[in-house]
Amino acid sequence: MGVQILEPNTCIRGCCSSKTIPLHLPASSYTLLSPIARGSESVVYEGILDGKRVAVKKPILSTSEDLDKFHKELQMLCKLDHPGIATLVAAHARPPNYMFFFQFYESRNLAEQLHVEEWNPGIDQVLKIAFQLAQALQYLHSLGIAHRDVKPANILLDRNYYPHLADFGLAEYKKDLRKISIENWKSSGKPTGGFHKKNMVGTLLYMAPEILKKDIHTEKSDVYSFGISINELLTGVVPYTDLRAEAQAHTVLEMRYTEQQLTAAVVSEGLRPVLADPESGAPTSLLSLIERCWNADPESRPSFENIVMELDSIMEHAKKEKEVENIPGVPYIFLGDQLPSDVSNIRTYQESINWFTQGEQLAKRTSLSASSARMWADLSNNSLEYHPILSWGSFATCGRRETMEDTHFLMPQMCGEKDIHIFGIFDGHRGAAAAEFSARALPGFLQTLGSTNSPSDALLEAFVKTDIAFRNELLALRNIKGAVQKDWHPGCTAVVALIVRNHLFVANAGDCRTILCRGGHPFALSKDHIASSLEERERVISAGGQVKWQVDTWRVGPAALQVTRSIGDDDLKPAVTAEPEITKINLSPEDEYLVMASDGLWDVMSNEDVVSIIRDTVKEPGMCSKRLATEAAERGSKDNITVIVVFLRPVSTAERIY
Questions:
Q1: What local confidence, expressed as pLDDT, does residue 483 receive?
Q2: Taking 50 as the threshold, does the pLDDT of residue 423 lie above it?
Q3: 544, 525 Cβ separation under 8 angstroms
Q4: What is the pLDDT of residue 655?
Q5: Longest CA pairwise span in the chain (Å)
Q6: How far is CA 14 from the centre of its chain?
Q7: Hey, which end of the chain has fewer CB within 10 Å, N or C?
């Protein structure tokens, strides 16, 4: 800002210092203008500092504890440096006027934009704000700081609508959170908004259930508040209402609930705001992420590291869809759509078809026919039996390939069932089409089949139905002149892990692989379906297929495919079947984690190698996945590499490298 730093650049107590931020200012250097906002703890003014527009936060200091809080907040702000954090440009930390000077953000805060200006951001804008806010919170958590008051009113927007997280009056270092008891919450900071919230930390509408139960705040409590806020950004309405105008919404809230009633509904009944409608254009993957963020169990919520990775993937997918939509002359074709009679402008390259969307549309249609009955309700749900506690993460890379043909999905708490989780990897060949289609379609089939079939039967039928649907889709497109090449026969291998309470089912078709670490040792849950296996060769030949030695190994048919089971590959059916082999086991306390990966990992690593690497890695599933994939690339893997790691019992991170 050009303001001179006066030495010594410290607060009056000497506990706050900075090399770049002036901490005491001559009265002539700044001017306070009109108030922007008033709260119980501070007044924010528009101001001028060194000739430039700023926002000046002037705390109301009534007690020595309030003054202690000012110094504590200043110490923290002086250490923060991130584009997603509101920028402190100066402070006056000496009597009689204690003030914070922040960069001025032209578009005010997100709550005002949504509920006063009635701003309706597009999905691309929502994704950008969510991603940038998640990066800011990831940065805070990496420093061991919990914000404790994440909400739209504390998200400032600049002229480009880039979000900046503000108001660190309630923020605490993780190491200090453990010391804060219920009795001193009030002195640690009053809430900054909402209704009926006398002794709560944070704003009631955005508070996680554990906070409402008066447990200690953690980073995962910030994740909950983030999920509520992003859903509000999507819907435009105040949480727990259907109203946009904030004042009117809060009046309705106070008529509907007392503080105790809302708290009880959130904690005991699982009440959450109405989730954004998929018809709004919000990706189903984003809606699933929001639901996981506001999960009642803090351990089941993703970390911001995983949230950032997932949002990045969702944005990349959205970008890809938009690029396809904008290709001149290429119609957006869905299975069952009325196709144009004039197809002369359709490009002859199948790359113009968005197979993710094809599969997703099929999944939506399939889910409409799903029974409302609970999935696999007949399986034991005895509270005395062992139940795994999951955390999960993934990493995928092209490796040395020019294109990415792997896809995967993570669907913990499938359809809102807290004890049902599904994870899958699809390794494409002859293009990514089958893998992209299957990653969206197969979960939809499984959801439909779950209420009427056993897990094993549902998995088998979901694989077969996905295969048939994909091949029918190709056939329909081949009937459109030039839509796809006649001799194009894409396929993919697939492995899916389904956890139903303490039961684990692994369905595998091809050469992806899944292992379980049990008591520190690898336990194979799948076997490779490849032509070099005598059993698989004989099965293919008996089904009418051809297998012969080509180049360096046994291969199937004119396509020279190495795998003997897959989804797609319609030129090799029925010999190359989509029917998976299914392994079922009961999980126990000695089961540590699950590793699923495409063959790009297993080509260069043994099961024992994988267990050894995780043993020496920080126990965060996303980090373990990345470490395995990176190590495989360094060992010379020539294929795409996708890894999913699912821990089956609680783990810490830096404390547990065993």
A1: 60
A2: yes
A3: no
A4: 38
A5: 92
A6: 42
A7: C
Q: Three-state DSSP class for 147?
A: coil
Whole-angstrom distance, CA of residue 435 vs CA of residue 160: 37
Identify the three-state secondary structure at position 204: helix
Domains (ranges, CATH) in the chain? 27-103 (3.30.200.20), 110-304 (1.10.510.10), 327-529+565-647 (3.60.40.10)
Tokens in use for 190? 């009053």
Q: Which of 161, 162, 180 is nearest to 171 (CA)?
A: 180
Euclidean distance between CA atoms 92 and 47, whole angstroms: 14
Q: Residue 331's pLDDT is what?
A: 37
239-248 long-range Cβ contacts below 8 angstroms, 24+ apart:
239/205, 239/206, 239/273, 240/205, 240/271, 240/273, 242/274, 244/114, 244/115, 244/118, 245/115, 245/116, 246/111, 246/115, 246/116
240-274, pLDDT tens digit by residue?
887 776 666 665 566 667 778 888 889 998 999 99
Please state, in angstroms and as integers, the Cα–Cα distance from residue 421 to each residue in 387, 389, 410, 497, 590, following that order: 12, 11, 8, 8, 19
The H or E element containing residue 92 is strand 88-93
Q: Give the pair of three-digit tokens for residue 8.
A: 């010594």
Burial class of residue 295 in the structure, from the number of CB atoms within 10 Å of its CB (0-12 exposed, 13-18 middle, 19+ buried): buried
In 478-575 the beta strands, taken as DSSP E runs, fall at: 491-500, 503-509, 513-518, 521-524, 547-550, 553-556, 567-568
First to last CA, the chain: 49
Q: Is the pLDDT of residue 74 over 60?
A: yes
User: Which one from 66, 81, 149, 406 is the annotated catalytic residue?
Assistant: 149
CA dihedral (623, 629, 633, 637) in degrees, to 10, reads 170
Spell out the residues 6+ positions from residue 163 whose beta carbon is closer than 8 angstroms to its own: 84, 110, 129, 132, 133, 136, 155, 156, 157
Contact 624/391 with Cβ under 8 angstroms? no
Phi and psi of 543, rounded to 5°?
-90, 5
Q: How many degrees, rounded to 5, is the angle at CA 392 between CA 219 and CA 274?
A: 65
- 0.70 cut: is pTM over it? no
Helix runs in 236-354, H state only:
246-256, 259-268, 284-293, 304-325
Active site residue 149: yes
- Residues 117 and 164: beta-carbon distance below 8 Å: no
Rounded-to-integer distance, Cα 394 and Cα 4, Å: 48
Is the pLDDT assigned to residue 191 strictly greater than 60?
no
Look over the chain and give the mean of its residue pLDDT values, rounded to a whole number. 86
CA-wise closest residue to 468 among 445, 447, 450, 497: 445
CA distance 123 to 127: 6
Q: Is the dihedral of CA 651, 653, 654, 658 positive or negative?
A: positive
Examine the pLDDT at 573 and tell me if it is beyond 80: yes
Q: Which tokens sit at 79?
A: 């250490």
| Range scoring the smallest mean pLDDT among 235-244, 461-470, 499-508, 598-607 | 235-244
